[in-house]
Amino acid sequence: MLNKTIKFIRDRVRNHLIFLSIFHLLEKFGIKLVLYYLTLESLDNKETSHPVPELNPITYNFLSAAELADLFSQPGMKYFKKEAVKRQAKGCLCFALKHHHDCAAYMWCNLRECNSDLVPFPLNSGEAYLLGARTMDAYRGKNLAPFIRYELYKKLVKMGYTRFYSTTEYFNASAVNFKRKLKARHIKLCLYFGLFNKPIFNLALRKYSLTYK
Predict the structure, then answer these.
(1) Domains in the chain: ranges and CATH
(2) Which residues contact 146 (CB under 8 A, 6 or more apart)?
(3) With contact defined as beta carbons under 8 Å apart, do 106 and 148 qualify?
(4) pTM for the full model?
(5) What pLDDT digit, counting tens, does each position of 123-164 carry?
(6) C-alpha angle 196/197/202, rounded to 5°?
């Protein structure tokens, strides 16, 4: 039992999860402290991976209003439904990967604004904000996250969008590693501080010189 406890603590420290846990605990008391990256992604910086063969056939496209209502009315989707309603109200579109008629994974994009609570800003022509990727429980472990992202890149490029923004919490090691595999480039590292849902300050701690051509 002691060895398991030590391993649990060691893994959380190693993966920076202990810091995320502390920040999430503070948020329950109205204190929001987030260290995060604003990043750029593009079709040129893709992860060339594909779903496992047994998932064929698969399709992918933006979900209609009826499809969204059906998806978020399913059991276990109550929390995500509230999130979806907020995102739809801000103009977000939901892109999904389907296996037969089942939604295996989905993610959101906004073509009008970066609607992040951390760093909101209007988008210019040809820009999009990517957020909220999720793989359904039954399809976990099949490497769908990079695949659906790459397919969304391709879809958006066909629509005239080539510059993709996203945000990543600094202490979320798995998310940072995922973006690194995608070869996403950091624009800046920022520290956000808010009290009771009101922003107090948002500091750019470091700006990176890497830009897309």
Answers:
(1) 2-207 (3.40.630.30)
(2) 47, 49, 178, 181, 182
(3) yes
(4) 0.84
(5) 999 999 999 999 999 999 888 999 999 999 999 999 999 999
(6) 110
